[in-house]
Structure formats: structure tokens, C-alpha cells
Amino acid sequence: MECALFGEPPAAVEESWSGVVSLCSSLEGDEAFWVAVLHPWGHDALVADCGLLPTGCNKVTLYHWVVSSKEPLILTAAATSQAYPCSSLPRTFGSDLIEFAAGNGAMGLGPTFLGARIRVSIESCTYAVEHLKLNNHGLVIHDDISSLAAIKLAHAELNGSPTTGLFGFPCQPYSKQGLQLGEYDVRFDTLLGGLKATWFLQLQSLIIECVPSACTTSAVQEALDILCKAMGWEKVDLLLDLKHQWPMRRARWWGILAPPGWLSGPLHVWLPDSRFQTAGSLLKSWPAWAVDEEEDLLLTHQEYLIFQDQAFGTDQRWYGLQRQLPTILHSYGAWFGPCPCGCRSAAMAPETLKLKGIRGCYVTSSLTGQPRLLHPYELAYMLGIPCSMKFNTSPRDTLPLLGNVASSMQSVWIYALLVQSASRAIPEMFAIDPAQVLDKYKRELIRQFNQAHCIEVPLSSLCIVAEDGAELTLFAAGTNLAADLLHAEKLQLHPEASCRLFDGDRQMSQFERFPVQPHGRCYRLLIEGPYAKVSKDEMIVISLNDGQDHWVELLRAGQFLFEALSSKPFEHIYHFVDSAGRLYSRDTRLWQGPGLGLASGPVPGLGANLIWHAMQSLTRDLNAQKGAAPLLISPALAAQILGASISPTGSELEIGNALRISECFCIFAAEGHWALLWGCRHEGDLHWTYLDPLSDGLRSQAWTLASHLSGLLRGALVSFRHFSVYTQSDSFTCGTLALLHLAAALGLPGGLPPHAVQTLHLWLLRQSRAESFRAYGPADSTTIRQLTDVLIGHGVFPQAASERAQLVANKIGIAAVQQALNSRNPWAALKDKASQPGSAIRLVTHEELEAQITARAKTKHGCHIPRAKEKKSRTAATRFTAENLDVSLLPLDKSHFKDEDGDDIPQIQFEEVRSNGRGIAVCSQTDARAFIVDPKSISTDALALLVLPPLPPEACASANITSMRFPAVYGPQQEPMLVQSTMVSIGDVDIHRHFGASDTKLAVLDTSVFKTVIYRDELEQDWARFIQHPVRYLTELLPALQLCRGRKCGAECPRFHPPLDEDIDGAIQEVWARKFLSDSGRPVKPAEAAIYQLYLRVASLTATQVLESSVMGVYIEPRKADLSGTDPNYTVVWLPKADRNAAVRALKSFDGAQALVRVRDRYGVRVPVAHAAAASKELRPDIPYVDVRISRVFRLHPIPHGVQRNTLLKLFKDWGWTAKPMQPTKGSALGSAWEVGADKPPPKPIMPGFGADVLISEVRARSTANAELPSVISSCHPRKLTPAKSTSADPWLQASNDPWKQWSASSSSHVAPGATSTKHLQALETRLQASLKDTVQAQLEEHAQDASMASDTTLVAFQQEADQRFRVLEAGVSELKAQGQQFRSWFNDVHKGMEQMGTQIAGVQKTTEHLTTTLGASVTSSVNDAFDARFAQLEAMLAKRSRHE
């Protein structure tokens, strides 16, 4: 393999050699060069004729140099010899590209979006070479990639410029569609040739592409590893599937080979984009192309039959706009003939097609309505190839060229990753974001296609002649039907009138299309019925009824129905039915006089008789042309077969000449849905096709019907497949689509757009017939409405819910929707139906889900309040806070507030608060802000504010601010309540709460709180008995919870015995929070529960006895009295991987242990905090003990994967931080992450560890404060007390909605800790002292100024003389300093010159010694060689002479 990659080793003398060499040194006047032949041969060689060698480079590639000597190796230039420079590892990233095995060049078009330039393309296929030249892919070389001639031409063009190679090597040796011969396939040599060209050209990097299975082929990886080792490169593998970004499946393996510094950063695959997952997200409809191109792409009869035959594959072949397109192969469009590229000279063998399956797809032409292949521009668009690509062959011949391409969208991403990673190693490069580049590329593709290839359908000029001889010229496209023109004409006619269209004497069918090119004939329009219109001046009255609602509207004759509905709540209703059963659409003109009554309702489906008549009409003309009539099975007969009311072999169904029938059609109804069953006879066997827009709507019924009809037709049922040409967009058009499928099967023109299908359906409904039964489509309005409500309730936007419901019903089937809606859990059943393979659909989009999560969190889970996760389980009920109170409706009792002298403090309004006032006022935080920020007294009397809602504890640090609870009678309801507030004293006299005097001493019993958990799997008693009275059963298990009454009591009585001086009613004071839970902690029914949990408040006198109780299955945990957390006096020593027996042994082995602890499957031992260190050392000696009370949780990231707890403890010890590892959490590609508990932050947020930096961020703080007390205590429901709020108030002024309320800054209204207030009299005294001090100071300064004026005159003269002397002295010193600096500069110059001279002399000496040594060695070597040669000749001569003698 090395010879194939690096060329042959230097051959014999006089033979040619090519390879890469490294230049070492020149000899004999630059006439020869010593070189090193690079990997893998490693020879030293002498290159003569070095004038051909390029200069300014370290590496050179030699082409066709002659070996003139083997020892030593001497290379001499010949007439064909060339030498081209190689680029070394570039300091700058080169934007040039070379394509190996270029194909159609799609792989190179992607990087050009980022400014790259294709310099050279090498391709051996003539078909592809012409395409590359047409699209200007640089120098196009038509040769094999491994040819040295081709490599030399490419090297001459590149001439050493830094270049990136693009190489998509053949996938047939590895693909599932190929023979999978691997390295034994002749096409494997193409891979080796591309790698050989990479070595000879010495590229800066290489991008390779192939099918994913090539990534796991050992021979491929071995070849790449050899090249990487020789080039000094690294390799990164990525798997990309186009379906994650674009509506086509194309999974490919991509490899990037580049210098190590370029691949240092992370290279990742792209993230899925949900915007472009179907062809309909890019196209409104399949474009209509030129007539000759459409005809070239139409399916042949053979192709159509093969596509329907399941023997050639069961995958979906027809694709609409609602699906992703499949992977397209090189054989696309050329299965049954030679390949245009020349790789195959005959059609593909049927055995191969059956073995591997025929791959490809087709669509319905918008121009002809017939099935056709994808147009090359459509296929290129779906492959993500820029629309600038040109094609020079017919559309069908172009398709194979696109079947084996690399997607340009994938190459954009790969090249962007390469540029991004290289920019990290090359600072001069501009960094890019691959995700942004990919998004821009998508938008550019869409813009280009819409501008360049949205071909308008050619218009034809049509001449329409009415009965009165008037001629009208219309312009119609090839996609227009006769029904379109008739529908437009009927909008102008009387409701009872009808019209028909004739082409000569032949009446045109509703489905007939107008010709693309005019044929010179006129069409005749025949109007039947009341032609005369009602005068437009006449007024008509219509009535609209919708259930119990009734509207009357006055209109002018001839106005549209939608004008009458503009102000009515019918925006989601599109069709209306009158009392006679006639159907009206919103665009119907109303001509009829008064008395027209319309009732809104669902659009009916087609009836059985109407469908049977339409089936006979469609086949009547066809029978006359073909002569052989197909068998038609009526809907009524099909219903009898499906209902098993008659036997399929009964006399009513006997068919004469059954073996002569070649085709059979049956439109049948089941579950309110119409579908077509089509049977064809081939060599005596029957092949059935079930045509239905819904994937599995009536598949089982169709199979049953096909089985019965096969027996009637005396043929074997050998195949059954599902197929559809149309997509159902309305719930009521299934019967119409079944007729259109019948027309398509008969070969009649079809391909109606959705709005035309609806128009045809309405026309069919007007053909009134007495119906035996109707089918209303895949979903009626009731089911759709119920499904819409369910979707809205789970987050679907209301404006999109109706359309989503219809899509879901069409996708999974109406029967499945109804079954899900009738189940006990409709949403779970819907999700299960919508996730089945083949019918998967996303019920709620990502954006809708995010919006629902946000809305639910705000309304239910409390994300808008602090510590939401801690509170969400306790805030299910609405809490009434002081924020809801109106301060004007809070009257105070003056006897509840007194001053220092015991006098009552009256209540005043906030507006009455003034200087030297007296009283107490209730106000809001906004009103009291000024007094909180500046805590000073404004009155010499008792004056205070009661602030609602209360201020946070940190704001109550000032001496004049205290927390206070006061009683009040609120509002007109006179509801008594206790209100928590903050009192701000702004007077000199203190105010305090007065509770009144009482001579009775009240005793309060000390209590303790326990959380009790009972596990079903350990409880020895019957669970069914336990759940009937769990608390009573618990007291029987724990006698310490029973108060001993003194009966039959002894020394060993286990019950609770209170002290003699204590009067206690019972040991248990309170029981609450009783829950039956599953193993995962979710509430369940008692019989299904695995855990029973409750909280107990017991007398503290029995707390120790209860805690030390040991009962199988019962675990007791002490809690704080305020329920804010666990009891801080105890801790738990957890026993890793221990079961209950091991935990019991540990409990008995340690004297300080009190009880067992269990949380799910974990066991531990509870000990007092004082014994925690000793217990940890004895019970788990291998785990170091960390004495820390966890109050804060931090996240460490990144740290190496595989780090254990003990390693982290050693790291924390080095940091000087007391912390305990809790659990590993989600990390990233950079490393793992751990959650760590501590009571204080680390020394620094970023600490060194494991040879790198570790980021430490706080995740959350565990609450250690007391439980928050309610600010208002009242017996009334909050709604009855809360006044109506004005909607005009600014919500951001409310404290609860303030987004900056957590920001503590100097401008905050909270007072800094330690702030003190100033009494009013103290402030007056301070101002008087300051004024007196200022007056005395001013007088002293005035006297001092008068005394100094006398001495100023004498000092001026002396100062002037001194200044003059100092100036003279400074001038002399400056001159001396300048002279000294000049001398120092001269000495420095002389010293430097001497040093330079010494350096030069030393260099000359070294050069002389080197030359002497070199020449001496050379002369000595030459002389020795000469003497050795002479002596060797002399010895040879003497030897010969001695033999002669």
C-alpha cells in the first residue's frame, strides 16, 4: 500500500523516478543539491542539474528524474523532468481548492460560499468533465486520479500555493447497494490514487467524503493513517445526515485531515433544524417546467409498473410536499437503459433490482398531472446544491450525475469547521461561526431558487363563445381545468342555473385541462336554467342560524355571502347549507329573494349512489376506446362484503368469465372514509393496490376486500401495497379523492391542486341524488373540534390548533383519533398514536412547548417568586399577604399602641404626618421610602409609621425600624386579622405594642417534630390492614407515642410517662401531611403505594424515646420546630452499598448511634453531631470525614472524567476549602462536573487543579433561616377581602414585579446595617452648635488677616533678591549637567564600537576554523579515496600476475 501512496522506490540505473524530496544543501557552485527522499524510503540523494529546482522552498516534488547512480543515489534531469515546489505548513490559511474525482463538482461549490477558489479538478469520466468545464471548475484535467501526468499538471497549476483537497471517493465498494467488496473492488484504487496525489502535491489539508460504512472499513482507515503519519496530520471523523437540515435523506461520513494545531478545538456535527423538514417548507408546489422537459421526465409504462411491484422494494415511491425525499442513487432515472456516464452499457439486471430494490421516487406533475421524475434543478435544490449549477444534457440524462454527489450543504459545514479550527492556530485568520454560515447558506439557496427556477406555466389564449354570440378571450395555464372556468362563471349566474363547456360538439369533462399551446378553436359555453339575473338594485334578506343564535342580514342582490358574514362569528366556517340541502361557499353570490335561510354546518361527504354513478361515467368512454371493460364493484356491494352479510361465493356475487377480467376497481367506505381498491391481473395472479391519502386508514378493510374479490376472480393474491397520488387537506373530500384516484388509474388527466379538489367536491354535491349512505371523510367537525380543544390545552397556539388537528387526523387516521379521545387519558393515547412508525407527527412544536412551560411555571410552579422550587409544593393555595391590603381600610385601636408614659397613640392618615406631630399612620413602602433612606426624627413627640408590606429583615437594622404584628379589623366586611408590618419611628418618643395586663400564668408544652416514613417492603404487618387506619396502626407499632394511663403499668412499660407535675393530654399533639407514595415519590392510591409518609408533632419529653424506637419498616427523622429543615443537633452517616442487615450491624457496633435511616435504597445511621467524626471514622474508615454543615451548593467544572470523591477531598484540602462532594452532574466535552456542598465560598471562584483551571459557581443556597411566616392571618378567603385593582396601574411599580428588587446598591431604600436615627431635639442642638462655631471661627480669621498685612511689605523685597540669586545658580548647575551627559555619550559610543569589532573578529576566526576543517576533511577524504582506488588496482594487478606465474 505504501508504494501505491508514495510511488515506487528509486529504481535501477537509467530508470525514471518521481517523489517528494527535502532540500538539504548545494555543492560545487550550486550545480548539485543534496536532498532527502521523504517517507517512506528515507534515502539521501544527490540531485544534479539543480537549475531546474525551484527556490525559496524546503520541499520539492520531482517528476520523471533519471537515476544515474544507485550508490550514492544520483538523480539527473531528463527532457521530461520537472520539479515543482511544495507548500510547507502555512502560516496563513490558503483558500485554493483542488477536487479529486470531482464528479459534478457539488462538493467544491460549498466552500466557494466562504470565499474559496477551485483551482484544479481531476475527473476521469467524460460525461462529468464536460459538466465541470461548463461550470468553470478551474483547470479541468481529464485523466485518472492516480496518473502522474494528471498530478504533474495539477502541481504546475498550483505551483506550491497552500491548497485544500476535496475528495469524495467511490462508495460502491462499501455501500449496501453495492457488492461491498471493500479493498478487493477495483474502485478501491481510486482512494489510493487520491491519497497519492495528496502526498505528491503536499496539500495543506484534505477533506474526504463517503458513505458511513467506509468509516468502519479497516483498509480505508489504514490508508488514511499511513498518509496522516507521513504528512504529520491528525484526522477527525464526522457523520452528517442531510435530513437534519433539509428535506432529503443523505447520510455521509466526512473526514478532515489537517495539521495538529488546526484540529485542537472541538469539531461537532450540526444541530437539527426543524424549519425545513418537508419539501413543502421550500416549495408551495412542484414547479411546472418546459413541455419537452416534462415529457422527458414522465414515467414510462415499465417504470410505473415496476414502481408498483413490491417485489422490487416496499419503500414509498410517490412523494408529495409533506414528506422528506429519500436518498437518490447514481442509477436514478437510468434503471432500464445504459447509464449516461458510461459506467454501464445496458439496463440493470432484474435480479439485482429485486435483490437490492429499485431506489428513487417520483412526484405528480403540476403541468400534466402525470407521475414524473424529479427535475434536475429540483433534485439539486433538495440536495442543497446552489442554483448556479448549469446542466448541458437532457433532464433525464442529468439525473444520474446528481445521484452520486456530495451535498454542498454538508461541505459548507465541514469547510466552515476547518476554517474555524484553523483560525485558533493562525491568529491572522478571521474566526467564523459555522452555524451562522449554514443558516446564511440556506437562505441564499431559497432566494436563488425562487428567483431563478420558479418557472411560470405558459399561458394559452382561449376563445369562449356564449349563446348570444359574444366572444370572450381568456388566458389559462396548462394547470387550469374546465371546472375552474365553469366555477368562475357560475359565480355570476342564478343559483338554479348550470353551465357546460364544449370543444366543438364534444362536451368537456370537469377534469379536462386546457392545452398549453392554442389550437385555434373556440370553446362554446352553454348556460341552462334561469339565465336572467335579479336586478342589483333589489334588496334581499337572509337569515343565519347557528344553534340557538339567529342573525338577519340585508344585502343587495348579487353580493357575496362573505360580505354578510363579515361581522358575524363565522370566521372558521367555510361552507353553509340551506333548508333544501344545497351547499354554499363563502364566495357564492346571492341572487335569490327574501326567505333564504342558511344554517352553518359541516360539509357533507359524497354518497354511495353518487360515487357509483361517477364510476360508471368515468369508465363509459374508456370502454369504447379499449374494448375491454374493467370490473366495477359498487360501494353498496363492497359494504355487504365488509359487513359479512353475504358470502363472497354467493350467487349475488358470481362473475361470469372471471378469468378474462384484467382489472377491477372498487370504491368502498368504512369508518366514515372512502378509499379505492384497484386490482390488476398479471400471468393469472392478482396484484392489488390500495389508494388512500391516509397511510393506514382502511388498510385492514382493503385487505379483507381484496381477499374476497381474489376468490371471485379466481386468482391468487400475490401482492398488496398502499399508494396515493393526492394529499387530503379537507376532512370531507375523501370520496372526491377516491374518484380522482380512479381517474388516474384509468389514465385520465388529473393532478388537481387542493383548492380545485374542494371545488370539484362542491360541484359533485350539487348533483343531488337519493343516497343510501354517505362517508364524511377522515374526521367530522365534532372530532376535529374535540381534538382542537385537546391540542390547545397542551400548548398549541390557538391560531394554529385547527390546522394542526386536521393534519393529525389525516396522519394517524380518524379512527385512531376517536379511539384516543375516548380513552381514559386522551393526551397520552394521542402521543402514543402520533409516535408510531410510519405515522409519526409532532403534536406540539418546540416553540409552543417552551411557551407553555413558561406560562405554566408562572401560574403554577412559582418561578416569579424567590426560592420557587422550595415553595411550589406549599403555595398551591393562594396566600393572602399584606400586599393585597388597602391601607386606607385598616382602622387601628388606639389602646394597642402606647408611648413611654403609657398614653394611647391615636391613628392618623399619612397625609397628616408632619413636623412635631403625634400619632401612628399606616402606609405603603413607597410612601415611607424617604423616611427609610434617611432615618431621622421630625418630631419631639411620639410619631411612627406602620409600613405594609413589611420590610425584609436586612432593612430593619436601624435603631428606629422594628418588626411588629398588630391587630386590625379590615374593610367593610369587618374581618378581624393579624397583620405583620414594619414600624418606622420618626419621633423622639418611642412607641410600643400594649397587650394588657393578666395575672394568669399560662403554661406552654415544648414539642418536637418528626417526619415518619413507613416502607411497605419491610413492614411485617398486612398492608391492606395498615392503610385502613395508618395513624392508629403507627401508635401500636411505636408505644412511645401512647400516653400511659397507669393501668397495668410496670417497670418495663414502653409507653410514654409524663412527669408528675406535667398535665399532658397525649404524646401526639398534631398529625399532618399524610401521603401514600410510590417508589419514585409520586402520590398513588393506598393499595398501590410503597411508602406511607406523615409528620408528627409530639411532646418533647418523649422525643428521645420515639427517636430511639426501632421497628421494622418505620423510620423517624427529627425536624426543626418551624419545619424549615432537619434538626441541626443530629446528622446521618450514610453507608455506601449497604443493605438493612449491614446497617443494623453498624447501628449496634457504634455506641453513639441512635437509629437507622433509610431513603429509598440507601441506608445510614443517625448520630448526634458531636459524635459524627467518630462514627464516620469507625463505620466507613475508607471515606474521609468532612466536618461541614452544608448551606450552599457549588458546581465544579471542568474536571477530568473519572475523578472520585477521595480525589476531590484531597484537592479541597490543597485549596484550604472545607467542602464535601455530593454527586456528579452533567458535564461537557471539556470534562465532567460535580456538585459540592459547603458552608462558605471557596477562596477564589477559579482555582487550579489537574493541571488546568477549575471554575466554581454557586448553584443554590440551602435555606437555613426560619420558615417564612404569613404576613396576614385571617379566617376569610382572600377573594372576599381583596379589592378590585385598577387596570391602569403600572405593574412595574408593584414590588412583586420589580425585576431589580434583588439588586442591592447604594441607591436602595434599605438602610445600611448599623445606621442610627437622630432625635429631633438632638438635631436642633447640633445645628445651634455648628452656627456658633462658624461665627467664632470667622472672627478669629479676620483678626489674623489684619496682623499679617503689616509684615507683608518687608518680606516682598527680601524674596525678590533671593529669587534672582537662585536663578543664576540654577543656570550654572544646568550647564555642568549637560556637559557631563555629552561626555557619557562619547564614552558609550567608543565602548560599543570596540564590542562590535571584537564580535566580528571572533566570527572571522570561527569561519576560518570551519573552512579549514571542511577543506582538510574534503582533501583528506579525496586523497584517501584516490590512494585506496590506486592500491586496489595495484593489488588486483598483482593478484592476476601471481595467478599467471
Provide a descriptive summary of the structure in words.
GO terms for molecular function: methyltransferase activity. This is Modification methylase Eco47II. InterPro entries: C5_MeTfrase, SAM-dependent_MTases_sf. This protein is an alpha+beta fold and 1445 residues long. Among the domains are: 2-86, Nucleic acid-binding proteins (OB fold (Dihydrolipoamide Acetyltransferase, E2P)); 459-528, Phosphatidylinositol 3-kinase Catalytic Subunit, Chain A, domain 1 (Ubiquitin-like (UB roll), Roll), CATH 3.10.20; 539-600, Phosphatidylinositol 3-kinase Catalytic Subunit, Chain A, domain 1 (Ubiquitin-like (UB roll), Roll), CATH 3.10.20.90; 608-778, Adenoviral Proteinase, Chain, CATH 3.40.395.10; 780-861, no CATH class; 882-995, no CATH class; 1009-1120, Alpha-Beta Plaits (2-Layer Sandwich), CATH 3.30.70. The chain contains 35 helices and 49 strands. The strands form eleven sheets. Strands 9-8-7-10-11-13-12 form a seven-stranded mixed beta sheet, sandwiched between helices. Helix 5 runs parallel beside helix 6 (218-231), helix 16 (608-626) runs parallel beside helix 19 (734-745) and helix 21 packs across helix 22.
Shape: extended
Annotation, overall tally of beta strands: 49
Radius of gyration: 48 Å
Estimate percent helicity.
25-40%
Features:
OB fold (Dihydrolipoamide Acetyltransferase, E2P); 5-stranded mixed barrel; single chain; transferase; Ubiquitin-like (UB roll); 1445 residues; methyltransferase; C5_MeTfrase; alpha+beta; SAM-dependent_MTases_sf
